[in-house]
């Protein structure tokens, strides 16, 4: 306990000397709520951590939640949890309630980029240190190093590009000519924005003969993915590929394609992102071509990063969780399956 207190005091001294890479910082004890303009650091040992989750609806979110809970417990922290059920209105209210509880640190997994950015700024003004987890906020509105300590999460743009590489390969390579559809995640969320951008950029650069004939949101949801795909396959019966921004939507899409008489894996190639057990099983069985990983087990990385922040270390703007690609052909899907979530 003495050591932690000493480290925290040293951290405060470093902050006072401008020790956070050019960004000045306030420890929450020297911070004046309401008028604070600087990055906030914990003022001492952390006990109470608040966690604002955007939804609990699918294997990815349950795995993330379990990982955050386990890591908080391992570090001996009390965790105050909220679940916004995919509602920005609810998550804005949740974060306000958590700020009012005066946690030592606030962790936010924002539903969309813009809606929760103002709440991250509100936490900074209220002298609550913040770490953004999994999905980012709009960094034009709330920035790392000033409004929050860092963003801990995967590289969504790269995930989109890796998905494009896999679909290009599945459709015959760079010279392939085919039409495909794209099922988007939640509109305005950082994974939907960045995966879409990464995928589209890679496709245009590497296989200009593969054209996206329809792009529609299915909200990262399996049932919605099925409904949207059921309509799209009637409108575009000749498509040869589907890119879904997450596994849940891909699983729904595969169900719809089969109901429409298609044979996913043979006449239509499907690629998605996450690494759920259900989707990787479809890769192993051949109905899905590839799954790009988005690892939801962020807990250790988040709390190890938090420990560094408490010690007074400088943090990068982004702590990246690395991701892999799982396919049937090279055995990576079967090898990963026992660890899938
Ligand atoms: O933010 C990560 C994304 O959110 C996952 O891909 C998805 O399954 C979840 O809804």
What characteristics describe this protein?
six-stranded mixed sheet, binds alpha-L-arabinofuranose, disordered N terminus, single chain, 11 helices, 41% helix
Tell me what you see in this structure:
The chain has 11 helices and 14 strands. The chain is an alpha/beta fold and about 350 residues long. The strands form 3 sheets. The protein has a 6-stranded parallel beta sheet with strand order 4-3-5-6-7-13, sandwiched between helices. A 6-stranded mixed beta sheet has the order 9-8-10-11-12-14, with helices on both faces. The chain has a two-stranded parallel ribbon with strand order 1-2. α3 (about 90-100) packs parallel to α4, α5 packs across α6 and α7 (about 220-235) crosses α8 (about 245-260). The relative contact order is 0.14. The structure holds alpha-L-arabinofuranose. Alpha-L-arabinofuranose binds next to α2 and β11.
Please sum up the structure shown.
This protein is of the alpha/beta class.
Give the topology, please:
Blueprint: H1 2-16, E1 25-27, E2 39-41, E3 48-53, H2 59-74, E4 78-83, H3 88-100, E5 105-108, H4 117-125, E6 130-133, E7 151-154, H5 156-170, E8 178-184, H6 190-206, E9 210-217, H7 222-235, E10 241-244, H8 247-259, E11 269-274, H9 277-285, E12 290-293, H10 299-311, E13 318-321, E14 325-327, H11 332-336
Parallel strand pairs: 1-2, 3-4, 3-5, 5-6, 6-7, 7-13, 8-9, 8-10, 10-11, 11-12
Antiparallel strand pairs: 12-14
Helix pairs in contact: 2-10, 3-4, 5-6, 7-8
This protein binds alpha-L-arabinofuranose.
Alpha-L-arabinofuranose binds next to helix 2 and strand 11.
């Amino acid at each position: 306990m003495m050591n932690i207190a000493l480290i925290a005091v040293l951290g405060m001294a470093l902050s006072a000397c401008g020790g956070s890479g050019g960004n000045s910082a306030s420890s929450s004890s020297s911070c004046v709520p309401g008028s604070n303009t600087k990055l906030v650091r914990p003022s001492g040992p952390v006990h109470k951590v608040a966690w604002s989750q955007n939804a609990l609806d699918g294997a990815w979110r349950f795995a993330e939640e379990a990982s955050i809970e386990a890591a908080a417990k391992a570090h001996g922290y009390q965790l105050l949890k909220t679940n916004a059920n995919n509602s920005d209105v609810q998550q804005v209210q949740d974060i306000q309630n958590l700020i009012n509880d005066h946690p030592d640190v606030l962790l936010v997994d924002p539903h969309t980029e813009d809606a929760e950015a103002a709440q991250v700024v509100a936490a900074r003004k209220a002298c609550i240190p913040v770490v953004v987890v999994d999905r980012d906020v709009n960094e034009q509105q709330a920035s790392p190093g000033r409004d929050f300590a860092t963003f801990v999460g995967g590289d969504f743009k790269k995930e989109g590009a890796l998905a494009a590489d896999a679909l290009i390969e599945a459709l015959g390579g760079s010279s392939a000519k085919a039409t495909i559809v794209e099922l988007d995640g939640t509109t305005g969320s950082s994974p939907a924005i960045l995966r879409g951008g990464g995928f589209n950029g890679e496709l245009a650069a590497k296989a200009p003969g593969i054209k996206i004939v329809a792009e529609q949101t299915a909200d990262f949801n399996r049932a919605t993915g099925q409904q949207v795909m059921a309509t799209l396959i009637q409108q575009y019966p000749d498509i040869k590929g589907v890119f879904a921004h997450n596994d849940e939507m891909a699983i729904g899409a595969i169900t719809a394609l089969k109901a429409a008489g298609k044979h996913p894996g043979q006449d239509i190639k499907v690629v998605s992102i996450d690494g759920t057990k259900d989707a990787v099983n479809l890769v192993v069985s051949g109905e899905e071509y590839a799954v790009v990983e988005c690892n939801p087990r962020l807990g250790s990385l988040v709390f190890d990063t938090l420990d560094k922040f408490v010690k007074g270390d400088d943090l990068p703007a982004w702590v990246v969780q690395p991701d892999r690609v799982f396919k049937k052909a090279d055995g990576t899907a079967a090898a990963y399956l026992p660890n899938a979530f």
